[in-house]
């Protein structure tokens, strides 16, 4: 067996109504609550979560309005605002965009340099960040337990990660009751993102015995319960199981990383403002099909975790495609406005990330990217 590493410094508190115990959990960790900055989106305010937090701590300032897919400019804006407040801790409550932005800002407040300089640099921060408490309200990104935070640079058509062990939140509160208000399409898209984390980590060459356990259990939970949560938003058992699957997906990519599906989905997202999970849905099966024999054994195991009654590689892919279509996946990239003239951009932007491809079971050439995108445009 090869040598592997596993590092998971975040204390995770999972379960219904755990959000109501957030002050107690923070105090147990001896986090300085002298000045709490809350970073959130509109839904956290609308649903009353911010009012609850304000009652728990004496000095609180709220920094709201985090957009979907936050940009470098957004991160700079929030950093400037939080610098004036000078928080002793940050509570991030919202979806993956909120959590990612909070992690970037927490790091930038304690480390010299421009935010652009940190992007894509392994272990980019030299100093510990402002302590982060992560409270996800969606079941998708797993950002509450990862050392990653993704920012968008629309000028260059790029979505790129900031990577540092210092941006692991010190505490995550995973309360499935906070996900019940998600609209149906958000439930589907975030769930697909979580599923892709499990799948991409499982086929990664960096996969470890521990990450594979997370991956397979995450696939099992999401495969069984995401259709239920999608069909009935008030099904709290389904919400709970999908959130647990999302948590496992975050833990899996922390060890094993994501792959080509995420690379292509980021390009589609930044070019056409396609929600991340929906973009993931378009590329998941085509990329697995491209991996082919290089990942056949792993893909068959993925099918078993789903509960598919087959060990045929092609049939497993067909079943995954049917699963995604049930959740609203379109037939073609044309539904987003993508045309043949965009293929060159996909190829060049994907190949610019070749440094991320060393962990893939099969490394694509330019023609492979071109074929994947062409086929998705030509699909009737």
TrEMBL record:
Q: Does the keyword Heme apply?
A: no
Name what cofactor the protein needs.
Fe cation
Where in this chain does the record put each Alcohol dehydrogenase iron-type/glycerol dehydrogenase GldA domain? 9-176
Q: Where are the transmembrane segments?
A: none
Q: Where does the record place the Fe-containing alcohol dehydrogenase-like C-terminal domain?
A: 187-374
At the top level, the lineage of the source is Bacteria
Gene Ontology molecular functions: alcohol dehydrogenase (NAD+) activity; metal ion binding
| Keyword tags | NAD, Oxidoreductase
Q: What InterPro entries does the record point to?
A: ADH_Fe/GldA, ADH_Fe_C, ADH_Fe_CS, Alcohol_dehydrogenase_Fe
PANTHER family for the chain: ALCOHOL DEHYDROGENASE, ALCOHOL DEHYDROGENASE 4
The entry's family comment says:
Belongs to the iron-containing alcohol dehydrogenase family.
Q: What is this protein called?
A: Alcohol dehydrogenase, class IV
> What organism is this sequence from?
Desulfurobacterium atlanticum
Q: What is the lineage of its organism?
A: Bacteria, Pseudomonadati, Aquificota, Aquificia, Desulfurobacteriales
